[in-house]
Specification:
By secondary structure, the chain is an all-alpha fold. The protein is built from one helix and no strands. The mean pLDDT is 78.
Length: 59
């Protein structure tokens, strides 16, 4: 039997792929904007400092 392969798709929201996007994918990315992940928890260093997700509001 032949295994069915799923079509390969590029994640247009992954910055590593932005150099390889065609014009249609770039248009979609510009329309929707990049995806932001606010669920990341950054560990504290020895001085109890850590990165924080800042809330950016559109005016």
């Amino acid at each position: 039997s032949v295994d069915k392969q799923q079509p390969f798709t590029i994640d247009i929201f992954d910055p590593r792929n932005w150099d390889n996007l065609d014009h249609k994918a770039r248009d979609i990315l510009v329309e929707k904007g990049p995806v932001r992940n606010d669920d990341i928890v950054f560990p504290s260093d020895s001085n109890s400092r850590h990165f924080q997700n800042l809330i950016i509001r559109e005016s």
